[in-house]
Write a structure and sequence with these properties.
With 375 residues, the protein is α/β, with parallel strands linked by helices. It has helices at 16-25, 34-47, 58-68, 89-93, 112-124, 144-153, 205-215, 238-269, 305-314, 342-349, 361-372, and strands spanning 51-55, 76-80, 97-101, 131-133, 159-161, 169-170, 173-174, 181-185, 198-202, 275-277, 284-285, 291-295, 320-321, 337-338, 350-353. It has 2 domains: 16-248, Type I PLP-dependent aspartate aminotransferase-like (Major domain) (Aspartate Aminotransferase, domain 2); 251-374, Aspartate Aminotransferase, domain 1. Bound molecules: pyridoxal-5'-phosphate (PLP).
């Protein structure tokens, strides 16, 4: 068997080990320390969001943001349907109900029309949604101008799931900084990794301070252990933050490498009938975390995305269907959904291709040859 080509694997820049050693030498082996502070500063500076809290995961960041918005059992939260389950699971942790909204075809993210329809209908049914969670899938920024306009009209706070979109922008504004709070992830397969970790970013320092408080068991200011609220153990370790600091030094270079992967795929598929890539809308900049294709089997002599996936798998190349929409997941069966079938169609015909910043030219050729042999 030839060596495995992964969808997206960790890619260290070099300085990570030095920062980790520093953590050991100074004995800051704890969920606090100078690297945590440094990493938070790096993130705030990079996204221009003013404040950041480093947490144990992106999921924890979404959970804390819902807690801080005062979400109660039985409340409804609007969430993009086509996403990773981590966008929606924290809604269930709160005992709240997700209301799923379809994607649109330009960015594959939350459809503004379906969002508006959902808000109006939920209000009509007597329940105004408590928050909106749009997602920037695969690094492609959602239509935040339209989404924010609707959210502002109905005065509903937006929690922006930018877990896949560190480094993505609309104009000069970073993904994750349009809503009240933004969520980042540094899981092993994300654009940068701390092995596992996440962050909450915001312009509003109160949310960031409160999230750090809740993430460290909600300890009141007292010499003994005093608690007035339920707390969580959600802080990032200083060792993980050390990795993050090293990763921040190579983030822009790695985005460029991922964008180069996309360009290679785009060029190849421009000569293939029935297979398309997703272009950036005017003014948008994607970090191209994952390069994706849509396969129209009516134009490929019947070759489907599943045929491509299986052919690649045979050659030890990992590829994966696009996110299966949450309204189709057994765990969320029966929850409200608003849309017109866009996310279903994307799921049926879309495929994520190997996209790591550490792929070699030979790796990419192997992927493309595997696909070529089918067509
Ligand atoms: C990865 C991811 C998350 C969760 O982040 P973790 O750090 O893995 O908890 C949330 N939303 C989306 C869209 C993601 O891709």
């Amino acid at each position: 068997m030839r060596n495995k080509i992964w969808l997206s694997s960790p890619h260290m820049g070099g300085a990570e080990q030095k920062y980790v050693n520093e953590a050991f030498e100074t004995n800051w082996i704890a969920p606090l320390g100078p690297h945590v502070d440094g990493f938070e500063n790096d993130l705030a500076k990079y996204t221009n969001s003013r404040f950041a809290a480093a947490l144990s995961s992106g999921t924890a960041a979404i959970h804390l943001s819902l807690i801080m918005l005062g979400v109660k059992p039985g409340d409804e939260i609007i969430c993009q349907s086509m996403t990773f389950s981590a966008s929606a699971n924290p809604i269930a942790y709160m005992g709240a109900t997700p209301v799923f909204v379809d994607s649109e075809k330009t960015t594959w993210n939350m459809c503004p029309e379906s969002l508006k329809e959902a808000i109006k209908d939920r209000i009509l049914k007597g329940k105004k949604p408590k928050a909106i969670i749009p997602v920037h899938l695969y690094g492609m920024p959602a239509q935040m101008d339209k989404i924010m306009e609707i959210a502002n009209e109905y005065e509903i706070p937006v929690i922006e799931d930018a877990a896949e979109a560190l480094g993505s922008k609309i104009g000069n504004r970073a993904a994750g900084t349009f809503g009240l709070m933004g969520v980042l992830s540094f899981n092993g397969n994300k654009i940068i990794t701390t092995s596992g970790g996440g962050a909450l970013i915001s312009e509003d320092e109160d949310y960031i301070k409160k999230s750090r408080f809740l993430a460290t068991q909600a300890r009141d200011a007292a010499p003994h252990y005093q608690h007035s609220e339920v707390g969580y153990n959600y802080r990032m370790s200083n060792v993980c933050a050390a990795i993050g600091r090293g990763q921040m030094e190579v983030l822009d270079a790695h985005i460029q490498l991922r964008r180069n992967n996309f360009e290679t795929y785009k060029q190849f598929f421009s000569n293939v009938e029935g297979i398309s890539v997703l272009e950036e809308p005017n003014g948008s900049f994607s970090n191209r975390w994952l390069s994706t294709i849509l396969v129209d089997s009516a134009k490929t002599n019947g070759v489907t995305r599943e045929d491509i996936r299986l052919a690649l798998e045979k050659d030890n190349v990992e590829s994966r269907p696009l996110w299966k929409p949450m309204h189709l997941q057994p765990v969320f069966e029966g929850v409200p959904y608003y849309g017109s079938g866009v996310s279903e169609e994307l799921f049926d015909n879309g495929l994520c291709l190997p996209s790591g910043s550490n792929l070699t030219r030979e790796d990419l050729e192997r992927v493309l040859n595997g696909i070529k042999s089918l067509l």
